[in-house]
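Q: Hi! First time asking for a complex rather than a single chain. Here are the components, and I think there are four in total. Is that enough to go on?
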Amino acid sequence: MPTLEEEITQKTFRNEGQKAIINIIYTGNWLTARHNKLLKSFNLSEQQFNILRILRGQRPKTASLLLLRERMLDKMSDVSRLVERLRKSGLVEREVCIHDRRSVEVVISEQGLTLLAEVDKHINKLDKLSQRLSPEELVMLNTLLDKVRG
Amino acid sequence: MPTLEEEITQKTFRNEGQKAIINIIYTGNWLTARHNKLLKSFNLSEQQFNILRILRGQRPKTASLLLLRERMLDKMSDVSRLVERLRKSGLVEREVCIHDRRSVEVVISEQGLTLLAEVDKHINKLDKLSQRLSPEELVMLNTLLDKVRG
DNA sequence: CAACATTAAATGTTAGAACATTTAATTTGC
DNA sequence: GCAAATTAAATGTTCTAACATTTAATGTTG
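A: Yes, that's all I need. Here is the structure of the assembled complex.
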């Protein structure tokens, strides 16, 4: 198992705290890269995948673009065009809200649901592989990460 | 302190393992966002900052573009133009290698070193703030993260 | 040493992110 | 009820990441 120092080719860290921060960022990027590689085989970007999951979670309700923007993990200014691309791919449907015509309501399509279910299967398999930790260790890890964010 | 569930507006996770993976990615993005915000005030991107740090670590040796590409945390195809932008800003110097004229050697400039020192001060201060963990907890966190990557 | 293969960087192209600005609909205050 | 303020989305623009392709230099092999 390569240590973090070997992987990022840095001799030593000033302290464990510094190392922990780099380690979190590095491990997060590592996990994200695995996910993105998989998503790409389905022609999905990370952002598109996030939107689809939010929409599935909302069902059978619709979600406005505003709501989508708020829920995106890294807040996107550009949800309009992102959703438009998903619509062109047939994964979502959108229509102007009757009650407030400024607002646009979006729902995931059948095709979107089917695709998402397929992707989920693969993602779950992928994520399981990286669970070399015991249940106790996982709880501990979650607790520590929550502490980092204060 | 908001829990992860609240922050990403998801009711429950299927299990602690799933939660841990999301938690690592989320916390990593959270830390990165803090860094990027700071870097932006120095007109630096994350990638540019990484390159400068690698170059400082190499001193007084030079680094080829190839070496830089290998060392970048998320491997960049586009180091050529990235370094060119740094050169235009006066932060690095570059010249074609005498022994192998295909290769381009890069060094950080005095101006680059000065800037980097300043940025480092701020980053360190920022990173300290998020250390609400004891030394033992930090060691534990690092161990667990290394385990995740296997 | 000439032809070919390989390597390093540069360049071309496309799509997406980040930012501001504009447009259209609604709400508010008078 | 109307003008101004606010809100939601659309659009414009610029910069960068990601991808492929090209160019130039060096290695390799017969």
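A: The longest strand of chain B covers residues 92-96. Let me know if you'd like any chain examined more closely.
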